[in-house]
């Protein structure tokens, strides 16, 4: 096990795209030693990406937008929306100027989209988001708990805090879904087109929040309310976001009250292939200790799949409710049923 490999302190760089090295290996030489000419580098957040050009916000200020290329020395190091980067060169942001990205900071969280026909690798599409807003309509289209469960797995394993947003509450009541997820202690917000989404705005304030949801659930309706001048603010990027090309992966839009919402129009399903059962158990602290006593390779599903699983003992001794264990196991099996669910997604 690597020095940082224990428990939750995941080293996301090790999980990155397998066709590139993100950073030089640890323990060889000082990793982030800057060249002298990079001493004047400025820090920025990547807010958009389009064919070899990254739109960056200096110091995370939405008024200071700079377009940058990736410095040659970075090779094919992935740089995605949400990444914190160091820029050199012309960082004035004036038309036709181009800065250079010379460094990508370690990521605090990752959201991956799945591999598909056009791309055999799971790619990180959003870095460093603190929250994942899972947008689901209460009707038209009807809610699908399988999608919510996979989103939860992606959030827990990627280091994002999940928030469920139930839209179109004018068409159906949210009670059933709220009950189904009550055990997770996840914030659940309910919205409808004819009301201002104040709860959502409050929850997103000063955070970087990735937003995910199926087509037609009301994401655009919600984003337009949260970011009234999205088109003006995003400039270069909004031109990209309008199409439905496969290159469109994510775009960060500045919230008027501070923070960013990252829309993910290109993501149809999540990359869950790298996720281990223990990554999900880690989001359920009361089960972590017992999981360590399980037979090696335990999937924690209980009998019949994992007969020696120790998680049941936590419920037996009263330290957790059956509902919590059921919720955890539902998420674990949503990961285990990955292939099936992806096939299901493919025909949509
Ligand atoms: N009844 C009702 N309809 C809504 C509500 N929110 C959005 N809609 C409608 O649902 C449809 C889809 O809304 P969009 O905001 O475009 O959904 P989207 O998730 O952005 O969909 P894509 O653009 O396909 O990704 C539109 O016709 C909206 O008018 C709501 O709260 N109630
Ligand atoms: Zn187990």
UniProtKB/TrEMBL annotation:
GO cellular component: cytoplasm
Residue ranges of every copy of the CP-type G domain listed in the record: 118-270
Name of the featured protein: Small ribosomal subunit biogenesis GTPase RsgA
Record region (Disordered): 1-39
NCBIfam families: ribosome small subunit-dependent GTPase A
Keyword presence, rRNA-binding: yes
Family listed: Belongs to the TRAFAC class YlqF/YawG GTPase family. RsgA subfamily.
Localization of this protein: Cytoplasm
Pfam families, per database record: RsgA_GTPase
Cofactor note: Binds 1 zinc ion per subunit.
Sequence ranges assigned to domain EngC GTPase in this UniProt record: 127-268
Subunit structure: Monomer. Associates with 30S ribosomal subunit, binds 16S rRNA.
Enzyme Commission number(s): 3.6.1.-
Role according to the record: One of several proteins that assist in the late maturation steps of the functional core of the 30S ribosomal subunit. Helps release RbfA from mature subunits. May play a role in the assembly of ribosomal proteins into the subunit. Circularly permuted GTPase that catalyzes slow GTP hydrolysis, GTPase activity is stimulated by the 30S ribosomal subunit.
Taxonomic placement: Bacteria, Bacillati, Actinomycetota, Actinomycetes, Pseudonocardiales
UniProt: Zn(2+) binding residues: 294, 298, 300, 309
GO molecular function, one term: GTPase activity
Biased composition (Basic and acidic residues): 8-22
Gene Ontology biological process: ribosomal small subunit biogenesis
Binding site for GTP: 167-170, 213-221
HAMAP family: GTPase_RsgA
Coarse class of the protein's main subcellular location: cytoplasm
Keyword terms, alphabetized: Cytoplasm, GTP-binding, Hydrolase, Metal-binding, Nucleotide-binding, Ribosome biogenesis, RNA-binding, rRNA-binding, Zinc
Cofactor(s) it depends on: Zn(2+)
Bias type Basic residues, positions: 23-36
UniProt cross-references to InterPro entries, sorted A to Z: G_CP_dom, P-loop_NTPase, Ribosome_biogen_GTPase_RsgA, RsgA_GTPase_dom
